[in-house]
Amino acid sequence: MEGTENHPDGTALEDRMLAETVCSALAAAGLGIAAVTAYRKRFLAAARIAAYALVPAGLVLTGVVAWASDIVFRPTVWAGFGVLALAWALFATTRAVERRSLGKAGEGDGAAGKAGRQGRSGKQGKAPRAARGSAAQGAVAPAASAPSLGQSAARPKPAADDDFSDIEAILKKHGI
């Protein structure tokens, strides 16, 4: 095939040329916009636009674009990303299942929870994160004292049949 010669570093010239052309066009367009901005006497903005416009040209000259285009246009690299995504999905799924099963196991009585945390040797080990959280759910925080502004005591307390009863039930359920 014509035009598919490989560069000594193994990249196809067509892929590199396409990426370098796009970067050069971006740099030229950005410098044009910077020139128009400078013409309008906005020199600080023009300098900032010129700086952004020179980044793609610098990436081409340093070889970063050739390296990136080598990664983007190879199917084996994308297969590697797919394998990494699969590994991450499996890891996340197993963590979610583990947390869910530990959360259900921690709802039992204290003796069963302690027996489940013992290792093969019978020694008491570290409790799993969910089990430690369930033990702390029984603890009650001390009540905060009322502010001493004087007017806080004059405020009427809400009625017991208010809409806050369901919120209180949710907070009690979570041990808050």
Mean pLDDT: 74
Query: From the helix content, strand content and strand pairing, which structural class follows?
Result: mainly alpha
- Shape summary: flat
Query: Can you summarize the main beta sheet?
Result: none
Distance between the termini: 71 Å
Proportion of residues in extended strands: under 5%
Low-pLDDT segments, ≥5 res:
111-116
* Percent helix: 55-70%
Rg measurement, Å: 32 Å
How many β-strand runs? 0
Task: State the oligomer.
Answer: single chain
Count of alpha/pi helices: 7
User: Could you state the order of secondary-structure elements as H and E?
Assistant: HHHHHHH
Structure overview:
With 176 residues, this protein is an all-alpha fold. It is built from 7 helices and no strands. The protein has helices at 13-39, 43-62, 64-72, 75-105, 110-117, 129-136, 164-173. Helix 1 (13-39) packs antiparallel against helix 2, helix 1 crosses helix 3 (64-72) and helix 4 runs parallel beside helix 6 (129-136). The longest helix has 31 residues, at 75-105. The chain is flat, with a radius of gyration of 32 Å. The N and C termini lie far apart (71 Å).
Brief description of this entry?
With 176 residues, this protein is mostly helical.
How is this fold's topology laid out?
Layout: H1 13-39, H2 43-62, H3 64-72, H4 75-105, H5 110-117, H6 129-136, H7 164-173
Can you give keywords for this protein?
176 residues, mainly alpha
